[in-house]
Amino acid sequence: MKKKLLEYLANQTAFIDLTAIDKIFTATELAKKFDVKRNTISHYLNQLNEQGEVIKINSRPVYFFHKEAFENQFYPLRQQIYTNAEEIVAERPFFEQQKDLFSLLIGYDKSLSRCIEQIKMALYYPDNGLPTLITGESGTGKSFLVNLIYRYCFENDLISGNAPFVTVNCAQYANNPELLTSNLFGHVKGAFTGADYDKQGAFEAANKGILFLDEVHRLNAEGQEKLFTFLDQGIIYRMGDTNHPIPIQTRIFFATTENLESNFLTTFIRRIPIQIEIPAIDKRSHNERLELVYSFLLQEQKKIKRRLTVTGQVLTLLTSASFKGNIGELKNIVKITVAKAFTEQQRESSVHLTIYHLPEKLLMASDSNKQNSLYEEVTLNELSSVTQLVNKNQPPQQRVIQTFEHLLTTFQQYECKLEDCDEIFTKEVETLFDFLLFETDRQHKQETLLYLTQYIRESLKQMETSYQIKFNGNSIYAISYYLFQRSSNNWFPEDDMIGQLIQTLDQKIAHAYPVSYHYVERILELSQPKIDLVISPMDKVLLTIYLKRVDWTKKLAIPRAIIVAHGYATASSIANVANRFLGKDIFESFDMPLDVSPQRIAEEILDYSETNDVSNGLVILVDMGSLKEIYQYFPKQLQTSIVIMNNVTTMLAISVGESLQKKCPLEEMISTAVSSASFDWEIIYPEENKMNALITTCFTGIGTANQISHLLEKSLPSSVNLSVIPYEYTILQSKKQQETIFSMYDVVGIIGTANPDVGKPYLSLEELISGDENQVLSNWLVNIMTEEENKRFMENMIRNFSLEKVIDSVTILDTEKVMSEVELFMRDLERVMNSSIPNPQKLALYVHVSCLIERLIRNVPIDNYDGYEQLYQCQRKTLLQIKQALSVIERDYSVKIPDSEIAYIYDILFGTVDISTIEEDF
Question: Residue 420 half-sphere exposure, CB side, CA atoms within 13 Å?
Fold first, then answer.
């Protein structure tokens, strides 16, 4: 009887809640459970308490629970008898983390941490939370997770104690939407043949609780659409009754094994804001797979009620195998394996699990990948826990965590006075590194360790170059072994008090050992991207304590030198050539965007100075910009000599580099560099064999000229050697043929919206759109193209230079709508002015006003018009008429047309800008 009582308490104690102890731990309830008198149970319990097997809480009522089971599950206890539960809670270790129900999930703090974060976000959102879709391969634990969510909601008062949990497997209704509707939403009497009474559906049954729709991918499009009303409005309608909406308050979860894009309506997925993917077992870490194996072995041990011993090779094979059925398949294999061993060893007091009990298919799959055992043999009994078993197989990792905890506990005991516990810290850390270096088995993961050592060596070598220091050889291996053992543990305590203690210790270590702390930060910064390790502040603390004893030796050094230049690879190219010429890496390079500010350059330089030793001086070569502007952003406390030189060239860099190598004084280096920086210049234009070119231009800016150029290039046969170059109208008009382009190219003509009068043949865009009846363009190109090329070019021009094509190319707006708007504007203008607009001006207005609308929408109007005041005084009435006619465009596009844009339209209408096809006055 006493043994059964002890076993029962052991099982129940694993789930004890000290803040609200269940009555099952009282003598009265235990007497009922075992159907004996209360005083008999009480006698046994007090005996077990005296023997140290059971803990007693002398409250009202008196509680008893299993001591060893509690300590395995929670933490060690100091006494056998307590006055109240609060005394036990007060003994909770400093580092014991508060856990919620989701901690029952293996991987809750690793591979599933993001999933749990999303679930909590969905659950705590107001108005019954957010709809949630859980995806994952078959056997990953989706149904188990939703059941856990229900328990979590209950324990955290998100739903009431009697709240329902309703599950619907949608596969049952995949091809019967009417049955689905009835089962989900219910029906009223007479809704269909056989509906003899009103019936509730799953939604009403799950009201105030949780509704779980499993295998939701089996719903066809019609089935998914039936859920929209609830997802959008939180109401349903029973089948056969569309006049009486029923409000439903339920938390809804969906689960699927299928791809979302190919199996669901976009409109359905859009209505589910939380989408969670549970990883397959192959994507879980090795440690998580080991925990899963242990958890299933413990479940079987409790069923067979025998001590269970498992060989290390069995654990290795179970954690390394691939399972298509994921966790579900692993669980079944563990069950079959234990069942086989139990059948063979029924008469034994314990069951011994070996590879001969594993299914043959598992062994066959492992033949091609034979490996040594990664684990030691373990024994499971009724008091074993997953945490206890995992820790036994990971002593080095646990040793690192224990060191963290010892450092913090000591720091707290000495009232956060670092000087009082410094010696204890040093011994603690030295003991840890001795253990990691000399007492741990590194053979199982030799490749990983070699990989880490390689990158740590590279990082330290880089630091030796940057800081001009020398690490001793042991540092490489010590840091590598430490990070190797740390890699499988993410240690981030959730307790705010512990977090504050860590922050205080980190700050004091940084202040006490600034050099070593800075070097540790840099080592971790360089290594972290390559070794996939989440860095903890305690890593910095521990490594700083280890490295503070290193005697950092400085080499006799020269000033650091950097080149800062605008553009892609400009600085890099100069630095590369100079370093190769000098035979040593003297210069670092910074390639900066063209629009970078002097402050940004200064920030880059300061960042460099923080990660490199500039105590011997810093030489900065820049390509352009004010030297004073850069220097003013340097902090006054920067304690080093700085030289800034402008207009960097390769020759200047080489001259500076040579002076640095000779260790010349800074003044001498500058003097030598300046004297070598002189240069000669000459402009040479081609005199013969100039390339033929067409120029495109527009008096309102380069944008339209670019688009005309694009259409012309598109029309040219690929075999024709002719450049089409867009150019600013104002530059051509002011500089005429003195502009550089006329020296570089043989310009055969100009095409545009206005003639810049440079003494070259001109063809207006309007005439080109109208068809170029006089074949002006064809005549320009007669000596450039063959007859066949000219014919093909003109055919392409007809296709590409229709009015619609031109407008479509110069604006991103809807061409048809724009043309309609411009037509309305011209019609209104003709009406208010009582005059018709000639066709050439109409063509010009179609293009110009299209561009005008786009400029205004983009908020980049032409704001300037030379001589506007004089024009307004002389043509006030006409300008107002144009403005009035443009009101249709202002209204439809919600823009305001400035006076300068109206003046340009006046120029087009009345010929201030030359339009060669105008044949009569307007």
Answer: 8
